[in-house]
């Protein structure tokens, strides 16, 4: 099992990374957590088997990797966090094996409306590349001559506008690797990114049944956890702790790493 170890002493803390954002992207959020926890992040399948994407059908296929990691590398029950896809898979894993989880810090999980999820499932696979978010992933550049060129490209992208240069460099270093033909390529292949977008689950039934103590974090301008979803989540889990981070979007753990890290630290200290 491949994973990134951020070190630290104390209770085991696992953090599950998002689609297309390898663990190193979260360095500034996770390093402070290592002051009181042993922080590790498994590498999801796209980082381990970059050519496997045509065979991937459902996000639940990633759950066994997380469960195996906890059982073999950690003293359960553990503290577990996750962002976006990582938060969603953590919810699903906790529902399957609640004995392995002590508390959850769920940062902007993927909470898509049922109509969107159904439309994905009903769209023939050969036509899914027409869906805007999937088309955008498939069309993104996959190679740069230097990491500076990769940084300059991403610095201009709207999605990274709230991320400072230091954190963007963390993403560039984690998200690119040397290419056999020279230059740098994406560590998390764009084909995998598109595949994951095209197989999103409907998380609400699992979230409703999950009874493990949880912290919920949302970026104020998130396009993944809508205002309606945020309010529904609070009605489902009135005993959970909720934090909406101002002036942040879906990439809130990278846009406001200090706020998110402090919130996770404070929450885990109470469970």
- Gyration radius, to the nearest Å? 18 Å
- The rounded distance between the terminal residues' Cα atoms is 28 Å
CATH fold field value = Rossmann fold
Order of the strands making up the biggest sheet:
1-3-2-4-5-9-10
Specify the number of helices.
13
Biggest sheet, in brief?
A: 7 strands, mixed
CATH class: Alpha Beta
- Fourth CATH level, the homologous superfamily: Alpha/Beta hydrolase fold, catalytic domain
| Annotated CATH architecture | 3-Layer(aba) Sandwich
Indicate the overall shape. globular
Total domain count: 1
Number of distinct beta strands: 10
User: What is the percentage of strand-forming residues?
Assistant: 15-25%
Helix content: 25-40%
- Structural class by helix and strand composition: alpha/beta
Give the helices and strands as they follow along the chain: EEHEHHEHEHHEHHEEHHEHEHH
Give the low-pLDDT segments. none
Overall pLDDT level: 96
Report on the structure:
- The chain has 271 residues and is of the alpha/beta class.
- It has 13 helices and ten strands.
- The protein has helices at residues 27-30, 45-48, 63-73, 85-96, 114-122, 132-139, 147-155, 165-175, 190-197, 204-209, 227-236, 252-255, 257-268; strands spanning 3-7, 12-16, 38-42, 78-83, 101-107, 143-144, 176-178, 184-186, 214-219, 241-245.
- The strands form two sheets. A seven-stranded mixed beta sheet has the order 1-3-2-4-5-9-10, with helices on both faces. A three-stranded antiparallel beta sheet has the order 6-8-7.
- Helix 3 (63-73) packs across helix 4, helix 6 (132-139) runs antiparallel to helix 9 and helix 7 (147-155) packs across helix 8 (165-175).
